[in-house]
Design goal:
mainly alpha, 3 strands, about 140 residues
């Protein structure tokens, strides 16, 4: 009986590094190619693609549809859409139906409070804490419970 090991190919560090470089490089190339396609494509085509991926109308499209049916609604105002505004808007229009998003195929909207935020008016009578944050803190695209 011999103590010989079976012939198994050993992958060296050089081959592993080369495989990693090719994999990461291919992924980056694909992402840049997709970015170029979206940047130089017809805006109507990319909007149709976005509507297909969202499985529903855009926020602006849903706002127009609601207004045509007699509902007074406004799209959500994002501060980054107003780069030259001083000061930038931090809240929406007070007491109005605000169409927030449509990422999952269900349009999310809310009736803004007396300050234009996504709260009930009773929240401002007694406030123990204020949360400052991003879309996660805001509850962006989540149903209000």
């Amino acid at each position: 009986m011999s103590d010989e090991q079976p012939n198994t190919p050993m992958i060296g560090r050089r081959e592993t590094a080369l495989g990693l470089i090719v994999t990461v490089g291919s992924a980056l190339l694909a992402l840049y190619a997709l970015e170029a396609i979206l940047a130089f494509s017809n805006p109507a085509w990319s909007d149709r693609l976005g509507n297909t991926l969202r499985r529903g109308p855009s926020v602006i499209g849903e706002t127009h549809r609601l207004r045509q049916s007699g509902v007074h609604a406004y799209p959500y105002l994002q501060a980054d859409l107003f780069p030259d505004a001083s000061p930038a808007p931090l809240s929406g229009i007070t007491g109005e139906l605000t169409i927030l998003c449509n990422e999952s195929g269900t349009t999310i909207g809310y009736r803004s409070d007396s300050l234009g935020f996504r709260n009930s008016n009773s929240r401002w009578t007694s406030t123990a804490a204020a949360l400052i944050g991003d879309s996660f803190t805001h509850g962006f695209c989540r149903l209000q419970t």
